[in-house]
Amino acid sequence: ISSYGFAKALQNLKSGRISINPINFIQAIEDLKKFFPKPIDAIHTFYSIVGCWDISSVVSENDNIDEISVVGIKGKKYSDLFTVPAKHRRDFIRYVENHYIFTNAGSGLTIDYYFSRFDEALATVDPEYVKQHGIFFTDNNLSKLALWFVNEYFAKDLGENYIVFDPAGGSGNLVASYRGKLKHKIISELSPDLLQTLEKRVKWDPYHIEAGYTIIPKITEKKGLNFLDKTGKEYLDIIRAYLREKGLDVDKPLAFLLNPPYKNTDENEKARGAKDASYDIHPSILELTGEDAGKERYLAFLAQILNICAYQKELFPDVIPLLMVFTPTSWLIPRPTYAPFREVFDKYFTYQTGFLTASNEFFKLDGKWPVAFTVWRYEPQILPNAEEKNKEIFVPRQNNLKVYDITELTYRKLAQLDWESKEEVNFVCGYTFKKANLVTLDNSKGDIRTDLPEITKNKKLIKQPRYDFSHSKKEGDFGKLVSGFPLKDNENHFELRRKCGEISGSFIGFTDDNTPVRLLQDTCLRMSNKPDRVWCMLMSAFSSVNLSQIQSGAQNSRSYCAYDLESAKVLFSWFGISKAVNGRYPLWANQYEIWSPKSPLTPEGGTDRFWKYYYSLCFAFALAENRCVVTKFEADNPVAGAPEVYVHNPLCPTDVDSFWSTTLDAEIIKTEMPRRAFVVPEIVGNQVVDFENKYKPNLAYVLVQAVKELYRFWNLNYSKGQILKSVGLQDEFYFKYFDYSDFVTPYSGLVQIRKYAEVNGASDLMPYLQAVTDFSKLVKDEIYRLLADEFKYFG
Prior knowledge:
9-stranded mixed β-sheet; about 35% helix
């Protein structure tokens, strides 16, 4: 607080009133909740009286009506009329006349500040409202940054030449932040609750009154305006009708400025309706998006904007509408679901510029993912006429999206900025974008799944498909034994809404927690009861890499089989990348599919050796970090006639028949690549210098030896070539549902040996287990180093 503000605060102490300020104002709204039947009424009341609630304010009553108002600013300002239930009115009046709203124009703390934090108030007082609307209100400071960015990187004369329109006004931060020269601004919303606050906000701010604004619909109509349930023509005609009342029209290009709701309309309809959050979608919008993409509300908004722009262009051919929008990045890359819509969208809009920021920094979200602010011009691509259609002269537009990556920018950094100081704003914001990397949003990086070798299905070769043994139950399946779980696993049999596996299957798969499930042979013949293959559950998107794992059998979803060296290279590389980048990939990659690394080497530079080194690391890491187990699914379980199935550990290095021993062990090279191994070797006197003696031991080799040494010690000192029963693992999911005694063998999985050591106090095993853990971490870090420094994976 400035010295002026401090002096004002001292003066207000004399009034005997309690200050409501930026620190406690949300709590003040919480206090008001007890006077009203619904939480939203407390919010409306607060924002109705905030502009006149000072040290002089009193509550004005009228004996002839139930409504009251607040009078403040020495009797010069009146709030709107509102109703407080009779039983709470005395307490409400006492509360208002014992408090006041603290402002400090000298330091920029105005009434608008409290409006700018409307989102926080609403999320605290009525969180279900925010959830059902899918509204992530735009932070006030981020709004200002976005408009500064548009001014600096796109158009300084935006306000003079456009009608700024936000059809999803929310808290009003976006349009309220725009304080350049404006022809006019239009704000609309589906929710009448939000519209009430929006209109109060602009009415209390002299700037907006002077610049000109229209709230649609009017508060007096007590309704909102659904942006999606009508054609673009019908919607724009409604806007024009309201503007004509002021002698205006949409004869200037519209500049759509919005942060649309991100809610998926597939979700609970009843809950949405209770909070006035139901967006019915007109068929003309779904024609553009398709049914699946149209369920994403923000994509439906984009399609409607396209329709409105087309109609405005029809009315006024010279206009070039503008779109400035916050969205997730999924449709920008685009992910497969959104590719058809992007193809349509690109025919009408040309990309101008944009940036990425972090969702959890500026929006009230639990997850962290990139939010894009992008700028587009409506410039429809001219399609060929009938005579030209067969001349192959028409090439659909493909926008090349390069965005500034400012995902490291924090809320605190922007909140500390004095937005009234142009010099400070230009310096801080300018430096932020100057140091930002330009990231290209497209699918050119590829998808690692396309590198999977072909496999036979019905006598045809296809790319290995993912395998899922979990499917939605049919109506008649509930309450019956239809899944392949052990009989005693009642929760999965009867409470799970999905059918998993088959009750009499002769192969075994596993759920995430290693619960065994009976399976039938799949259409690609990938199932085996020998330890001759490995199953990997691998997430394709970076956002889910933490879920990837390797087990003895097929997993319930996103499961792939390594059955030979080539399939193992792709799958274990995929697994290694997933674990290596977890927690340290750039945020912009969040919505991307994992792609294969591309070597920067030429063949003369040692490409073959480099790849052997890389795959050695991935194979060794999988050997140390798998969740394979040795177990047995007993006969006649869960139904009579089901066969006994023994489950092996395909990644046991001491089993000569395991996938590791027969396929991968020989691929581990003993020496590592030197740090300069990615350059063509030096030539001295026509002789290529032999770097072999300069190589250090390969971390992959060291890790493999650590695993082998663990198994050697385990067999010599514990299993001794035998099966040990009743060893304390009876509560593990791979044993707990069976009647036989739990057991371990010389070939048991690492997770089993580690658990055995823990429950039996086998302290002499711990150094061996710790060595595997330590070297595994070093290998993971080396995989990451190769990705970051040599592959330039994210560069």
